[in-house]
Sequence to fold (152 residues):
Amino acid sequence: MRQLYRLYYRSSQTPSIVSDLDSVVQQIVKSSIRNNKDDGLTGLLLTIQGCFLQTLEGPVDSVRNTYARISCDRRHRDPHIIFQGPVEKRLFSDWNMCARSLAPTDKAILDVINAKGKFNPASLTPQSVHDLLTAVAKIQRRTALDTPLTAI
Fold:
């Protein structure tokens, strides 16, 4: 059995995609679902105040190759790995890729990382990213939203 691996990263959204972010994220999710299924990957993509925050989990080579491809994608600027390493189990096994958009009004979710409604990507730690993404995943599972930014 191949070892399970997880990677958390953040990147800035390039200005050219901000005006059509919903459409761009739909395109990302559509291609990610297809590619990730083939590669044995699962994950969650969060768009928040001009940033992408994502986790990828699966076989180590698939995770690293996918991140390498993402880091060269023109829709991302200044990608930064927050955490990578082996893990015991998947956190996001429900989705080959799921995406949610988070707005400043989502104060309760932002409070999970003690941001008090002010998101600062540079201050993210592996634990704060874990807490934020798992909180968003719990809400996603509980509400089972069927919005343009959600794909299961």
